[in-house]
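Our collaborator T.R. sent over the components below with a one-line note: 'Predict the complex.' Nothing else. No constraints on interfaces, no templates requested, no preferences about which chain binds where. So this is a plain run: every listed entity goes in together, and whatever single assembly comes back becomes the starting point for the next discussion.
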Amino acid sequence: MLGFLKQPWSWYVAGALIGLIVPALLILGNRHFGISSNLRHMCAACFPANIKFFQYDWKKEIWNLFFVGGILIGAIIATVFLSNPVSVQVNPTLMAELKSYGLTTYTKQLPPEIFSFESLFTLRGFILLAVGGFFVGFGTRYAGGCTSGHAIMGLSNLQVPSLIATISFMAGGFLMANFILPFIMRL
Amino acid sequence: MPDLNLIQSKKQLRQKSINTDFEVTSLDIKEENKATIVHLGSYIKYAIVGIVFGIVFVKAEIISWFRIQEMFRLQSFHMFGVIGTAVVVGIISVWLIKKFKVKTIKGEPITFQPKTFNKGQIIGGLIFGLGWAMTGACPGPLFAQIGTGAFVVAVVLSSAIAGTWVYGYYKERLPH
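Returned assembly:
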């Protein structure tokens, strides 16, 4: 059983479990799945700075901070107890492309050539991590949600604005991965 | 051109009053009957759901930078399968909840708010998409990536919080 759990889980098992988070949160307390709003709550709690957007009672949304706290703990559990010793399997075409950028390590789910503090202080690493992170925070709030709030919760409730947002997420990702990222990776 | 200024300020006023973020439920619904005292123990159940989600994130490689690159290059079905299955399960769940008027465990009604369209869903969505392909993470996986020991992602998360703050600062001046 444990050996089975240690293998990478298939898309349908993962997808079904993530989909079930929607009714789980609704039935536990009429809570709506949406993770990026936690970034707004953190701003409201720590640096509201008299900005109207952050003037609200963030404590009423504290369940969501518990939820992301759980995600952090879950990731620790998965890494410590359910870790898969085999290298991650990556599409050979992608591996060839990444090799041309000097990425050759496949021991973890994040390439250490990018995801390290040494890399953060290079131009390439700084753009990918610090600027990329800024885009994630700015973009999700501008769009009013992220993959969980729009693509999963919004689409589950058949909301057209969420469909528009989801298509925009995907369009931005396609644009970056195929046309912009190759330039950043060669920096 | 005083008229133009008037139109401009009216437009700004209208923009100020519109809601673009439907994820802060307590702002949308007045919960006067709910006790304002925070019982932290009652939130543990959400942490448990989060723990399950965190394990799924890591074990199904949803937090993998490589998987996100494959998705946006159409080199793997994996992420499309995950999101597609989640959406189908979510649609069926919400449909069942509405059809059978399922209540919460405390017997309260389950409510849904419609979202309205604004340009931010396209502009912000595109910006988030760029960041998603760069970092390999949407906001949920950011927390999970830190949990796997990639501590540099704390910097990515801090940048994302900064991005949210800057959006809040400039919100009224951005097209919506």
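Summary for T.R.: Chain B touches chain A through 125 residues (CB under 8 Å).
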